[in-house]
Specification:
Layout (H helix, E strand, L loop, with lengths): L8 E5 L12 H7 L11 E4 L2 E4 L2 E2 L4 E3 L17 E2 L4 E2 L3 H14 L3 E3 L25 H13 L3 E5 L11 H7 L18 H4 L1 H15 L16 E5 L16 H14 L4 E3 L17 E6 L4 H12 L4 E7 L11 H11 L7 E7 L1 E2 L1 E2 L2 E8 L5 E2 L7 H16 L17
Parallel strand pairs: 5-8, 5-14, 8-9, 9-10, 10-11, 12-13, 13-14, 15-18
Antiparallel strand pairs: 1-17, 2-3, 3-4, 6-7, 16-17
Length: 421
């Protein structure tokens, strides 16, 4: 998400049941019981400008659920791990399971989650300090990967963040080596930030972190993250750039080195270029499979231009984030935006594989009376009785789109999802 400052977080109390509460009809009851035939042990691969699973086209649509590994929106019960300066805690397993159930009900194929790949610089992180690992931090990551596997979902995880957020990122790696600059103003930062990409010692620190992450064995699956097909792709970073916001100043050499290193550790993984926007200087990097951009708000012309750029090198394009709300009058409608993506799926060279809305939250499980809110204005709470008519309508459009990307037609009703509290 394109924010340069730490986001404040609150909890929204669920209102009494209203006319907007999810209901079901016979068609949607059948869809809820729909079982995919995806083989969880099969890898997603890229064949030119298309993703394939077991030789058949596979679409990559779903949601951003950034908090699965480490949370910033909820204060946990007394005695649970909590780092107050950043409001950091671990989400409950119940919250993770509920969001997987929700994604399945919505028709998703894919989850993008920063904190399944980025976790550095605070005491609850996977790497609180340089070279020091907190194995407890793997618990929520392991459970998330396992639950995604159980729910026929795949994962895409960025490996570092461009911003100075609670879960860490490139500023954490700079501080580890004594470069104490701030990312609080994302519009312009100290040029020393480029040391993250160009300083050989810092680049090696980052590679060491990636190796520890990818070689971890998940106790629920018995597989390393590198060997688990559930994690179909790693992204070199989230909205990466240089000193000026949106400048795409990410060296070709760094992107080549990091993407090649991921493929050395995990040869069957796909790699997404983490530059904010389609970096045309990176199009011919052999070890990059997928390019992406983020849309605040959705813009049809920009989408078509991005697809055209990636099509020139016969690779895959993905809408990594988009504003689903319809609140920005400068944006195009979801119907028209989705129509471009859906229309490409019948082509022999679709290029665009899918899209991921920003961002999904559900209940504060085990408390099933409270929905968790993230105060950036893009929180999607499926089934919240307090949703406005516009929110309800937009969520219905997203669900219809996600199923249409699987060649399944559903109505505009929203089947309920049980809270596991």
């Amino acid at each position: 998400m394109q924010q340069g400052t730490m986001k404040l977080c609150i909890l929204t109390i669920a209102a009494t049941v209203s006319a907007l509460a999810p209901v079901s009809n016979p068609l949607d009851d059948r869809i809820t019981d729909f079982h995919r035939t995806d083989n969880p042990n099969s890898y997603i691969n890229r064949q030119g400008a298309e993703l394939k699973l077991d030789g058949k086209p596979w679409t990559a649509s779903g949601a951003n659920v950034y908090w699965l590994g480490l949370e910033e929106n909820v204060q946990p019960p007394a005695g649970a791990p909590f780092y107050a300066p950043l409001n950091a805690s671990y989400p409950t397993f119940g919250r993770i399971t509920e969001v997987m159930d929700t994604l399945r009900t919505m028709g998703a194929h894919l989850i993008r989650s920063q904190t399944l790949g980025v976790s550095v610089g605070n005491p609850l992180s996977l790497m609180p300090a340089l070279g020091q690992y907190n194995e407890q931090a793997f618990a929520t990551i392991d459970w998330s990967v396992f639950q995604a596997r159980q729910h026929d979902l795949r994962i895409m995880a960025p490996l570092v963040d461009n911003y100075d957020y609670y879960h860490g990122g490139k500023f954490s790696f700079l501080r580890f080596r004594g470069i104490n600059i701030s990312g609080s103003d994302a519009s312009k930062v100290d040029p020393l930030v480029q040391q993250f990409y160009t300083n050989p010692t810092i680049v090696q620190d980052f590679k060491n972190y990636i190796e520890h992450l990818i070689n971890h064995v998940n106790p629920y699956t018995g597989l390393t993250y590198g060997d688990d097909p559930t994690i179909f792709a790693y992204e070199t970073g989230n909205e990466l750039g240089g000193p000026i916001f949106g400048d795409q100043n990410v060296p070709v050499e760094w992107t080549s080195e990091i993407s090649a290193f991921v493929k050395k550790l995990a040869p069957k993984k796909l790699v997404v270029d983490g530059t904010y926007g389609v970096n045309r200087a990176h199009l011919n990097i052999d070890t990059i499979d997928i390019f992406s951009d983020h849309y605040y708000p959705p813009k049809n012309t920009k989408l078509q231009d991005d697809i055209a750029s990636v099509e020139t090198v016969n690779k895959v394009y993905l809408v990594g984030e988009y504003d689903w709300t319809g609140n920005n009058a400068q944006g195009d409608s979801l119907q028209s935006f989705f129509g471009i993506i859906e229309g490409r799926q019948s082509m022999s060279n679709p290029v665009v594989a899918g899209d991921l809305f920003w961002s999904l939250f559900m209940h504060n499980v085990p408390d099933c009376n409270v929905y968790v809110n993230h105060s950036d204005g893009f929180t999607l709470q499926y089934g919240n009785p307090a949703n406005t008519l516009q929110e309800h309508t937009q969520i219905g459009l997203i669900r219809q789109h996600l199923f249409k990307m699987q060649n399944v037609v559903v109505g505009n009703d929203l089947p309920g999802v049980a809270c596991p509290g």
